[in-house]
Amino acid sequence: MSTRGKPRVLLMHPFLEPGPTILNEAAEVVTYPPGQPLDEASIRQAAEGCVGIVSQLMDPIRETVLSTPGLKAVSNVAVGFDNIDVAAATANKVMITNTPGVLDDATADFAFTLLMTAARRIVEADSFTRSGQFRGWAIDMMLGADIFGATLGIIGIGRIGRGVAHRAKGFNMRVLYYDPYPLPPEAEQSLGATRVDLNRLLAESDFISVHTPLTQDTQHLLSTPQFTAMKRTAILVNTSRGPVVDEAALVQALQAKLIAGAGMDVYEREPAVHPGLLAMPNVVLAPHIASATVRTRSEMSAMAARNMATAVRGGRPPNLVNPEVKK
Ligand code: NAD
């Protein structure tokens, strides 16, 4: 508790309005010292005396941080929370919250953007045109892959995966999905999506888009055996989390032409990107911006602030990831 009476909350990084306004009404906000490394010991030191932390996906929030005396809640400004050890949080009775739902459309739009950009070689075409190499129409220039009517394989058909399936309908795509949990039959029917095992999805899809959370089960879900099983013409899109794809194996698969291309928003060791990917014209690379629209990032900020405001006022935040902590 601060001397001014309001509970103290550590804000790890600036976020967007109305997040700061909502948070300031509920708490005394202390900001993480700029330039301080994002390691657990430094975060713990900054969190001393705080009941809450508003974190982002690059902040490691594990036992060292979660055992800070008096810490009650961590509000992550993201739907994914693989940067947080939820079991350790639960053991320390710390509530963890995330921002589901508000970023589904922006992220699904972006997965489709990467798919189309890679399929139709837009990045290559843009630099070709800018650099003055366009000297006239040619029948074999910049040939790409058809999207309309192609087969799309969706790995993980949660909120965002379903959004991608919805968009695929407009392109008359055949949609296959792989997920441990089947969609209800009505949803399968309305999305026109067929549940298959992973091997069939890999073998039959022209495009594969990944939408699982990062967990122990999904780490390197796609590696050399899976790339080998894909069509030689397949294009992989990853807007989930970097480590779901074995990046070194992806580079090898692209170099060996086991698959045709990729659209990547996330990387195994962000912000580092495998140099092999940087060298490939058939790979589209984005700097983790799938949810980056003005409205979405603002809504994520508001939701994260409301989650924290509710927690510091003693309530049960709406987006509690570990509900067993607050009955
Ligand atoms: P969600 O929980 O609604 O859906 C995830 C789906 O993956 C679920 O249907 C789940 O059953 C499925 N799944 C879990 N393990 C699986 C496995 N081993 N194989 C296949 N499917 C599996 O989550 P969501 O809101 O759709 O978000 C998905 C992920 O996308 C988030 O966890 C986050 O990491 C990532 N994300 C990234 C960005 C970005 O900026 N690039 C933005 C939003 C979300």
Query: In percent terms, what proportion of residues is strand?
Result: 5-15%
Q: Please, how many helices?
A: 13
Question: Residue share in helices?
Answer: 25-40%
| Terminal Cα span | 23 Å
Mean pLDDT: 97
Distinct ligands: nicotinamide-adenine-dinucleotide
H/E topology pattern: EHEHEHEHEHHEHEHEHEHEHEHEH
Which stretches are low in confidence, meaning pLDDT under 50 for 5 or more residues running? none
Approximate shape: elongated
Sheet with the most strands, sense and barrel status: 7 strands, parallel
Q: Say how many strands there are.
A: 12
**Computed structural class:** alpha/beta
Give the neighbour order of strands across the main sheet: 8-7-6-9-10-11-12
Oligomeric state of the chains present here: single chain
The Rg value, from CA coordinates, equals 22 Å
Describe this structure in words.
35% of the residues lie in helices and 14% in strands. With 327 residues, the protein is of the alpha/beta class. It has a 7-stranded parallel beta sheet with strand order 8-7-6-9-10-11-12, sandwiched between helices. Strands 2-1-3-4-5 form a 5-stranded parallel beta sheet. It is elongated. The structure holds nicotinamide-adenine-dinucleotide. Nicotinamide-adenine-dinucleotide binds next to helix 7.
